[in-house]
TrEMBL record:
Span of the signal peptide: none
Species for this entry: Struthio camelus australis
GO function terms (MF aspect): lipid binding
UniProt KW Transport keyword: yes
A Pfam match: Lipocalin_7
Listed name of the protein: Gastrotropin
Location in or out of the cell: Cytoplasm
Annotated Cytosolic fatty-acid binding proteins domain residues: 8-25
Length: 131
């Protein structure tokens, strides 16, 4: 699997169920409000099975997770909680279980498609490649 499918810089172009999902995972409403129309930038560097996945939020806040698929890694949630998880690569998708939601990411039609599921709420975020 030589191709670096995920490497790139992506900007959110659309999302679904943002408010419901953020409430479901316990994000405070003022934070939800601030983030609602912000174009989160995701920057991904893939080197074989090693990933550096950064997200740039409003107000200069960034978060970076480094992981190797199939190995346990120390990761951080959107709200800054640290946890351990094994990120998998299944059928070209990145799959991870965060403490309170299940997350997948894939490149589809040149776009980064991320789906997070918490209970009965599914949050879908589509980002276009900008670099």
């Amino acid at each position: 699997q030589g191709k670096m499918a995920f490497t790139g810089k992506y900007e959110v172009e659309s999302d679904e169920n943002y408010d419901d999902f953020m409430r479901k995972i316990g994000i405070p409403s003022d934070v939800i409000e601030k983030g609602r129309n912000f174009k989160i930038i995701s920057e991904v560097v893939q080197n074989g099975n090693e990933f550096t996945w950064s997200q740039h939020y409003p107000g200069g806040h960034s978060m970076t997770n480094k992981f190797t698929t199939g190995q346990e890694a120390d990761l951080e949630t959107m709200s800054g909680k640290k946890f351990k998880a094994t990120v998998k690569l299944e059928d070209g998708k990145i799959v991870a279980d965060f403490p309170n939601y299940h997350h997948t990411a894939e490149i589809s039609g040149g776009k980064l498609v991320e789906i997070s599921t918490a209970g009965d709420v599914t949050y879908k975020r589509i980002s276009k490649r900008i670099a």
